[in-house]
Amino acid sequence: MSLALSAVAAAALDRVLGEPRRWHPLVGFGCYAALVERVLYGNAASRLRGALAVLLAILPFVLLASATAWLPYGFLLDALVLYLALGWRSLDEHARAVSAALASGDISEARRRVGFMVSRDTVDMTPSEASKATVESVLENGNDAVFGALFWFVLAGAPGAVAYRLANTLDAMWGYKNARYRQFGWAAARLDDLLNFIPARLTALSYALFGRTAQALACWRRQAPAWESPNAGPVMAAGAGALDLALGGSACYEGVRHQRPLLGSGSAATPRDITRALNLVRNSLFLWLAIIVAWEALHA
Questions:
Q1: Which helix or strand (DSSP H or E) is residue 9 part of?
Q2: Across-strand partners of 250?
């Protein structure tokens, strides 16, 4: 039962302790990745340089994580590694801070808090737009910060969780389609897409099971293909349908308003819906953990 124990222990640690306030490994990894970028970017960035950067950034830590398989009580170290890869409580705290600010009528604080979660402009957000942005972030990051890491942990142990979380971090650093990263960040973005392909669809299915199932599946089928991200589309469309909310649509990035495809079907998001989205992630996580425990018990 070591795999199941590690997964349950990691989720419990994350819920009780949250992310480390100081010396978070991902912060250190970000500094290391920035050094790799400075060394390899050069005067003319290329996809080859970017692929080499991804390899040099991720491989040493994956090899280090694989050492847990050879150590006594390695499942305890596995639990620690997975705990550091999860961001369940952090996602909950960020989202509830927005909800609390909106409930108290402090739109300035709500905008500031939303800015910690999304890349879009927040300075002129209305309460409805702040609620929508937060719900979208909760749904998408439910996959990125919880289910993706858990999936790869089950499939490949601690090395799988490390590879997934670091690839996700590199995508957040380099996966932009701008002049600097269009070529250099291509490998990071594609690797993140690949690693998220199955977890995103399992996340979408989980969301559907805990909401308006038929509507969630219909929104996933009809709306996800129009979304720019091949993995965020299913997750957010299914989540929006499950919650009976209208997401997507207009959003402002770097001073330019973009009309994104519509997601879901229903009413505009409110602060109450932030809590509903968090409950969707929580219930889905409990389901995943129950399945992991049951599966390992059956094959013990």
A1: helix 2-17
A2: 259
Q: Which of 149, 184, 142 minimizes the C-alpha distance to 164?
A: 149
Please tell me the distance from the alpha carbon of residue 231 to that of residue 239, in angstroms, as a whole number.
Answer: 13
Q: Where are the domains of the chain?
A: 2-298
Q: How many CB atoms lie within 10 A of CB 15?
A: 15
Between the alpha carbon of residue 15 and those of residues 10, 101, 148, 174, 280, the distances in Å are: 9, 22, 17, 29, 16
Closest CA to 286 of 298, 278, 296: 278
In total, the chain counts a number of residues equal to 300
pTM, two decimal places: 0.94
How far apart CA 74 and CA 280 sit, in angstroms, is 32
Q: Are the beta carbons of 131 and 273 closer than 8 angstroms?
A: yes
Give the SS3 label for residue 50: helix
Contacts of 216 (CB under 8 A, 6+ apart): 204, 207, 208, 237, 238, 239, 240, 241, 242
Segment (H or E) for 262: strand 256-264
> What is the per-residue pLDDT across 95-151, written as a single tens digit (0 to 9) for each?
999 999 999 999 999 999 999 999 898 998 999 999 999 999 999 999 999 999 999
Residue for token pair 């994350």: 14
Type of residue at 177: K
Q: How many CA atoms lie within 13 A of 129 on its CB side?
A: 17
